[in-house]
């Protein structure tokens, strides 16, 4: 193979990825487990074929593995080119595999033969993952938006974003609202790896010299986990605590979850019954059984309030101000300015 293509480090590769299509030539399962956001999947081998080539390499050596790979991909060369054309009509692509080795080089060689301009990710997807992890070690300028369950923190974040503020919406990336009920109405959660990739992509789109608003969260959001570096920084950042009356929060949660089927809600209450305490959980289930969903929400919310206050007391956060929902929306720029000073 003649190496007529550039090799880019992860930082340059991702900068170029903003305007140039990325072709991920790893196997489908590798792609599903985690990929660069926006990358097109163009697997050189299926999962089964990759295993066959790997076994051949182990038992018969590199030359035999190359021969086996050529036998497999030979009939599909036109398919690769046509698929690449669909992804990149301008015939310029970025290509990567796992470690920046034979798979990406083979695809780049073929595409160049068909007139494409190709650049490779030096070190492959493995180098990209290392780069994103290191990026989260560089520090953050955060303001944490706190408040009891049902305070409308996510809605506030969306409002802030609409007003031009920098926002990192963890729950949106996690496809989960954080509580035991957080998966209701959401898409399936991403893998941990994909959550981290999506988080990194959103972080890279922000100006890290300026303040970023982020919602107060537990370490786990459903089944995904906030990276340690970010979570630790959240724990040291100033909290702006939204004070919203209990009755308003009950109403907000009723509007959010009241339309779901009773068996779904009952199953989730049962799931946290040990943590709630048997009597409290039974009261919530009885209210739900009588179709008094608002009362059930009120009972469950009492449990979440105690849990949130306990968690907040254990964190080394400096609580700047307690402010109402309306007051915050009127004066968030002044609050940010005070914190930044």
Describe it.
- By secondary structure, the protein is an alpha/beta fold.
- It folds into two domains: 128 residues, Oxidized Rhodanese, domain 1; 202 residues, Rossmann fold, CATH 3.40.50.
- The strands form three sheets. A five-stranded parallel β-sheet has the order 1-5-4-2-3. A five-stranded parallel β-sheet has the order 7-8-6-11-12.
- α6 links the parallel β4 and β5.
Instruction: Give the number of helices.
Output: 17
Strand content: 5-15%
Give a quick account of the main beta sheet: strands, pairing sense, barrel closure: 5 strands, parallel
Largest sheet strand order: 1-5-4-2-3
The N- and C-terminal alpha carbons lie at a distance of 57 Å
From the alpha carbons, calculate the radius of gyration and give it in angstroms. 25 Å
Poorly predicted tracts of residues: none
Task: Based on Cα principal axes, name the global outline.
Answer: elongated
Instruction: Look at the structure and give the CATH class of the largest domain.
Output: Alpha Beta
**Secondary-structure element pattern, one letter each:** EHEHEHHHEHEHEHEHHEEEHEHHHHHEH
Count the E strands. 12
The helix fraction, in percent, is 40-55%
CATH-assigned fold name of the largest domain = Rossmann fold
Total of domains: 2
Mean pLDDT: 91
In CATH, the architecture of the largest domain is: 3-Layer(aba) Sandwich
- Helix-strand makeup class: alpha/beta
Features:
341 residues, alpha/beta, Oxidized Rhodanese, domain 1, Rossmann fold, five-stranded parallel sheet, 17 helices, 55% helix, 13% strand
């Amino acid at each position: 193979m003649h190496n007529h293509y550039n090799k880019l480090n992860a930082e340059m590769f991702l900068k170029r990825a903003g305007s140039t299509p990325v072709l991920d030539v790893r196997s489908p399962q590798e792609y599903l487990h985690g990929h660069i956001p926006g990358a097109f999947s163009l697997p050189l081998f299926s999962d089964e074929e990759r295993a066959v080539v790997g076994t051949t390499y182990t038992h018969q050596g590199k030359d035999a593995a190359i021969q086996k790979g050529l036998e497999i991909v030979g009939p599909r060369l036109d398919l690769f080119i046509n698929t690449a054309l669909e992804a990149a009509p301008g015939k310029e692509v970025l290509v990567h595999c796992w470690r920046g080795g034979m798979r990406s080089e083979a695809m780049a060689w073929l595409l160049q033969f068909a007139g494409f301009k190709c650049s490779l990710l030096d070190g492959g997807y493995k180098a990209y993952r290392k780069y994103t992890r290191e990026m989260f070690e560089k520090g953050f300028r955060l303001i944490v938006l706190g408040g009891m369950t049902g305070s409308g923190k996510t809605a506030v974040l969306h409002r802030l974003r609409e007003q031009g503020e920098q926002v990192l919406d963890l729950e949106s990336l996690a496809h989960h609202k954080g509580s035991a009920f957080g998966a209701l109405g959401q898409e399936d959660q991403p893998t941990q790896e994909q959550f981290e990739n999506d988080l990194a992509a959103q972080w890279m789109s922000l100006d890290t010299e300026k303040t970023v608003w982020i919602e107060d969260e537990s370490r786990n959001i459903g089944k995904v986990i906030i990276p340690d570096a970010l979570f630790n920084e959240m724990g040291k950042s100033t909290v702006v605590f939204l004070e919203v009356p209990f009755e308003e929060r009950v109403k907000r949660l009723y509007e959010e979850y009241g339309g779901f089927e009773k068996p779904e809600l009952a199953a989730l209450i049962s799931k946290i019954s040990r943590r709630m305490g048997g009597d409290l959980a039974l009261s919530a289930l009885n209210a739900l059984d009588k179709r008094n969903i608002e009362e059930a929400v009120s009972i469950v919310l009492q449990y979440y309030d105690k849990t949130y206050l306990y968690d907040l007391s254990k964190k080394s956060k400096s609580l700047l101000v307690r402010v109402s929902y309306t007051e915050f929306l009127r004066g968030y720029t002044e609050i940010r300015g005070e914190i930044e000073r």
